[in-house]
Amino acid sequence: MDYDRYSINTEIKYQPLEIINIPSLIDECAKAWQNYSLCKVNDCVIRLGVINGEFHWHKHDTEDEFFYVIDGLLHIDLEDKSIDLKPGQGLMVPRSIVHRTRTTGRTSILMVEGSSVTPTGD
């Protein structure tokens, strides 16, 4: 797997009561695969992904993961099917389910996952 093509920042970018301007973050992103950890909500992290291309197959052994599409089209491949998400749509992938995300063009997504999740998978 080529971790160099992914830019995944796990450091929390915003503290409580700080305004998060998501459209500005999306506009400023120049990388093909950028993932920001925006803030913590209880025991979860809210992440912003601005992505183009495909991620590797992986799973999270103990944590569920939620994807919400802001713009673009997100394909979530599972072992037996592929699910397409359009803007305004979301999907929760249960723990231990092998999956990968991919796009055919620049796509912006929000992800909600436990703060103990390793974004690249277990």
How are the elements arranged and paired?
Elements lengths: L6 E6 L9 H7 L4 E9 L2 E8 L13 E7 L2 E5 L3 E4 L4 E4 L5 E4 L4 E8 L8
Parallel strand pairs: 1-2
Antiparallel strand pairs: 2-3, 3-9, 4-7, 4-9, 5-6, 5-8
Please provide a written account of the structure.
With 122 residues, this protein is mainly β. The chain contains one helix and nine strands, in the order E-H-E-E-E-E-E-E-E-E. The protein has one helix spanning 22-28; strands at residues 7-12, 33-41, 44-51, 65-71, 74-78, 82-85, 90-93, 99-102, 107-114. The strands form two sheets. A six-stranded mixed beta sheet has the order 1-2-3-9-4-7, with no helix packed on it. The chain has a three-stranded antiparallel beta sheet with strand order 6-5-8, with no helix packed on it. The longest helix is centred in the N-terminal third of the chain and has 7 residues, at 22-28. It is globular, with a radius of gyration of 13 Å.
Short summary:
By secondary structure, this protein is mainly beta.
Key features?
globular; Jelly Rolls; 9 strands; 1 helix; six-stranded mixed beta sheet; three-stranded antiparallel beta sheet; 6% helix; mainly beta; single chain
